[in-house]
Request: fold
Amino acid sequence: MKRWWLGLLLPLTLFALDGRSVYEKKCAGCHKLYIPAEKLMANFLEHNNTLLHLEAPTVNQLAYRLKQQIGDPKGDKEIQLMEVAAFVHDYALAPDRQKSLCMPEVMAHFETMPSLKGKISDEELEAVAAITHSFVPVRVDVSKERLPEGLSWSLTPTFFFLTADGKLVKTVPGAWVKEDFLQILNEAKGALR
Ligand code: HEC
Reply:
């Protein structure tokens, strides 16, 4: 009985392609995987690509554009992944700057991608599209100003409890579920008395 199961499972695992290894073999030579958005912006918009000397967009850069501009970014994720996969498939086999989703300021630094026609299979393209789709862009909006009263923090969020005359009574780092946070508030209230 066990053998029968093995026979059934093996072909599936053999043929399931790993997007990451396709990326390493066929895209990584030109497309770096991840560089933080802040660095990318500085590189392209302020330093004319002299900081990073990139020859192609990074995968997180591609992921950001693809997720934002293909299909409905707020709609069904599976459907969008299929649409993204179709775009990646088409672009990799027939690259064309007219179809590009990148900012013109960024594209200006790149040659047009050479076609991968005959060098990559449909299955490999499908698998690699899924890794571009696995990036989740997060917008970070953190004030870099110093806090007043000499307060400092190392985690966001951090809660400070102060007396009316500005004396710090309690610092609580982290986000909490309702019950725990109510308890923290009660403790702070006690400490303030
Ligand atoms: C020989 C270098 C090279 C290889 C290998 C390569 N690319 Fe590219 N790729 C580029 C360059 C350069 C650009 C930017 C210019 C352009 O869009 O044609 C680009 C652009 C793209 C774009 C379009 C971005 C846009 O909207 O402008 C996609 C999608 C893409 N590559 C996917 C892939 C995938 C997937 C692989 C691997 C299977 C891959 N590329 C392999 C050089 C390469």
About this structure: Residues 10-14 have pLDDT under 50 and may be disordered. Residues 5 and 11 are 11 Å apart (CA to CA). The pocket of heme C is lined by residues 26-27, 29-31, 55-57, 62, 65, 88, 91-92, 95, 97, 100-102, 110-114, 116, 120, 128 (CB under 6 Å).
